[in-house]
């Protein structure tokens, strides 16, 4: 049989008071340090062009959607979140999406669609908030995804800057 010899506790260790006072001292000190807790949702989260929020489709200055329905983003999406049906158009680009949906419940905000797109037609926005009462409500259609190019400009410039390095 193995006998474990326990160390005798000192008087102060037995009454435990010094530990309590040390804990109180730390609490008191922390009360005067700057707060690091974010008061979300009362205070919005800070965003920059680096923020990888929900993907959005670019609407060009002439009012047309930039997407040519090539399907590369759909193929690149690891979460199978994108569904595109293309159609012919009279415009010079020849094709455009008839249906473009992103299931935001599947989307993992990876940005692969943004990287795959050859037409600068889809970018990660700074929109982070996502809530609804039904699953179907979070399958966004074209109208919900479209944003003017000017809204996405900081992100577009940022991505162009990255691409220019190669
Ligand atoms: S961000 Fe990623 S997961 Fe979301 S739609 Fe784009 S490729 Fe799919
Ligand atoms: S990769 Fe770009 S152009 Fe092609 S379908 Fe996706 S958003 Fe449209």
What is the gist of this entry?
The chain is of the alpha+beta class. The chain contains six helices and six strands.
Describe the structure.
The chain is 27% helix and 17% strand. The protein has six helices and six strands; from the N terminus they run ααβαββαββαβα. The strands form two sheets. The chain has a three-stranded mixed β-sheet. Strands 2-3-5 form a three-stranded antiparallel β-sheet. Bound molecules: iron/sulfur cluster (SF4) (2 copies).
Shape: elongated
Uncertain spans, ≥5 residues at pLDDT below 50? none
Number of strands: 6
Ligand catalogue: iron/sulfur cluster
Supply the CATH architecture of the domain at 55-163: 2-Layer Sandwich
| Secondary structure category | alpha+beta
User: Cα distance, first to last residue?
Assistant: 70 Å
CATH fold category name of the domain at 55-163: Alpha-Beta Plaits
Number of helices: 6
SSE succession: HHEHEEHEEHEH
Task: Output the strand order for the largest sheet.
Answer: 4-1-6
Main sheet: strands, sense, barrel: 3 strands, mixed
Would you state the CATH class of the domain at 55-163?
Alpha Beta
State Rg.
27 Å
Overall pLDDT confidence:
94
Proportion of residues in helical segments: 25-40%
Query: What percent strand?
Result: 15-25%
């Amino acid at each position: 049989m193995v006998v474990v010899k326990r160390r005798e506790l000192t008087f102060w260790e037995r009454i435990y008071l010094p530990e309590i006072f040390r804990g109180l001292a730390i609490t008191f000190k922390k009360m005067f340090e700057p707060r690091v807790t974010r008061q979300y949702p009362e205070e919005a989260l800070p965003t920059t062009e680096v923020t990888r929020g929900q993907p959005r489709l670019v609407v060009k200055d002439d009012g047309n959607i930039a997407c040519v329905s090539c399907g590369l983003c759909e193929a690149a999406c690891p979460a199978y979140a994108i569904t595109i049906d293309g159609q012919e158009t009279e415009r010079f680009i020849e094709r455009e999406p008839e249906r473009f949906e992103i299931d935001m419940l599947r989307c993992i905000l990876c940005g692969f669609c943004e990287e795959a797109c050859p037409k600068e037609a889809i970018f990660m926005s700074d929109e982070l908030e996502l809530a609804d009462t039904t699953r179907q409500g979070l399958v966004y259609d074209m109208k919900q995804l479209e944003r003017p190019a000017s809204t996405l400009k900081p992100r577009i410039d940022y991505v162009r800057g990255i691409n220019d390095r190669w």
